[in-house]
Amino acid sequence: MSWLAVFVLTLSVCAPASAARNVASDVRAIEQVVESFRTSLIHKDKAAYMALFFSDRPEDIGWQFVSEDARLKEIRTSKPDAIKARRIPSNNFVALIDEVVGTAEPREETFSNVKIDTDGDVASVSFDYAFLANGAKTNWGAEMWQLVRTEQGWKIFSVVYSMRDKRSDPAG
Asked: Which of 15, 92, 160, 169 could be cross-linked to 58 through a Cys-Cys bond (beta carbons 3.0 to 4.6 Å apart)?
């Protein structure tokens, strides 16, 4: 056996085992979470929406937006103490579905450029989003979720998103 063959064999035996990345069944299951999120808003289905999250308590789920610079500059004209990423306890995943359910007008979040990365136990999902109220785009940006696979399936553990709106780009 050549020294190269011994070296390769040694590396393969000593290399740590790694989980398969982006297995098709996991990716499909995560895509279903994204689709269920979207349709639960359209159908104002709070039970289906809440079932997507790791916990039903707002303090257990990370939920944070970051204002785009032009938007922040415009906000500061009336609120000089505004900051890019302020923790607002009332801005959480439960408040979103309660607002959607509490209005007769349609609400929808659209997704594009969806990217999923998973090892089968944890996952990240990133995409561009647009939030529509009564058919009009009210805000948009990039959104990223962290998910964990539980005995009940994939659950959203945290959400971060950038916020752009008419203050960011009057053309929208």
From this structure: 92
Where are the extended beta strands (E) located within 97-151? 107-118, 122-133, 136-150
Amino acid at site 76: R
With beta carbons less than 8 A apart as the criterion, state whether 154 and 33 touch.
yes
Asked whether residue 8 is domain-assigned, the answer is: no
Region 7-27: mean pLDDT is 67
Q: Tell me the sheet residues that pair with 158.
A: 62, 146
Residue 145 lies in a domain: yes
Domain containing 90 equals 20-163
Number of domains in the chain: 1
151 φ, ψ (degrees, to nearest 5): -65, -20
pTM attached to this predicted model: 0.85
Classify each residue of 104-136 as buried b or exposed e, where b means 16 or more C-beta atoms within 10 Å of its C-beta.
eeebbbebeeeebebeeeebebbbebbbbeeee
Distance CA 64, CA 51 (A): 20
pLDDT tens digit sequence for 143-152? 999 999 999 9
Q: Is 14 among the domain residues?
A: no
Which residue, chain included where needed, has tokens 């906000």? Answer: 75
